[in-house]
Specification:
elongated; about 210 residues; alpha+beta; about 40% helix; two-stranded antiparallel ribbon
C-alpha cells in the first residue's frame, strides 16, 4: 500500500484490498480503511500510525478487518514507515499487509488448551507433569508432593530428577518406551513402574502421557 500525506486517497494492490474484503476495482480512501477495521481496533491503529510518523519509527500493528456484508473477520498484520522531505516533513506512508488469521487462531487454540491444562492440573490429586523435550525442563503440579511426599522445593526442574526417582530396574524400560513414542509421534504412552517416595520407599504408579 502507498499513501500520500496528508491521508486522503490510498493506493492499494489487489492483495491488500482482499485483506479488507474489497474487490480489485474498489476505490480506497482513509475513511474506507478505518471503516473496514474492527471498531475496537480503530483507535489503537490510528494511534500507532501517529506514533510512527511523529517518531520516525517503524509501523507494526495487528488489527481485525470486517466484511460488512457477513460480519466475517480477518486478522491482519501491517508493517510500514513514513518518508520525509528535505525539510523533515512527512510526505508518504507506505508498507505491506499480511493475513495472519490462521496464526492468530492457532495462538488462541494453544492458549485455550494451556488454560484447560492448568485447570485440570489444579483440580486433580494426581501428579501432572509437562515436559519440554527440547530443553529437558519439567513442570509438576502439587500432586507430586501429595502422592510422593517430596517438598516442592526438592522437586527438580528437569527430567533428570524424575529419572533418578524411577526404580533402577524400571528405568531403561520406561525411557525406551517414552523415546519410542517421541520418535514415532502421534501415539500415547503408558507404563507401570516404581517411583521413589520422599521416605525412601517406592510407590507403584501408572503413568500416561
Amino acid at each position: 500500500w502507498y499513501c500520500d500525506l496528508p491521508f486522503d486517497v490510498l493506493a492499494w494492490d489487489d492483495r491488500v484490498k482482499a485483506h479488507f474484503w474489497l474487490p480489485p476495482d474498489a476505490a480506497v480512501t482513509i475513511d474506507t480503511f478505518y471503516a473496514r477495521i474492527h471498531p475496537a481496533d480503530r483507535e489503537p491503529t490510528r494511534a500507532a500510525i501517529g506514533r510512527s510518523i511523529a517518531g520516525r519509527t517503524g509501523y507494526d500493528v495487528h488489527y481485525r478487518t470486517v466484511d460488512p456484508a457477513t460480519g466475517a473477520e480477518k486478522w491482519v498484520r501491517a508493517l510500514g514507515a513514513a518518508a520525509y522531505d528535505a525539510a523533515g516533513a512527512p510526505t508518504r506512508f507506505d508498507g505491506v499487509t499480511l493475513d495472519v488469521t490462521d496464526q492468530r487462531r492457532t495462538e488462541a487454540a494453544l492458549r485455550e488448551s494451556s488454560d484447560r491444562f492448568a485447570i485440570v492440573a489444579r483440580a486433580t490429586n494426581d501428579a501432572v507433569w509437562d515436559w519440554d523435550v527440547r530443553t529437558g525442563a519439567v513442570w509438576w503440579n502439587d500432586g507430586v508432593t501429595t502422592l510422593f511426599g517430596h517438598p516442592r522445593a526438592a522437586v527438580g526442574p528437569t527430567a533428570a530428577w524424575w529419572t533418578e526417582h524411577v526404580h533402577p530396574d524400571d528405568r531403561d524400560r520406561v525411557a525406551t518406551g517414552i523415546r519410542a513414542v517421541i520418535d514415532r509421534g502421534g501415539s500415547n504412552w503408558s507404563a507401570e513402574y516404581r517411583f521413589r517416595r520422599a521416605d525412601g520407599g517406592y510407590a507403584a504408579v501408572l503413568d500416561r502421557g
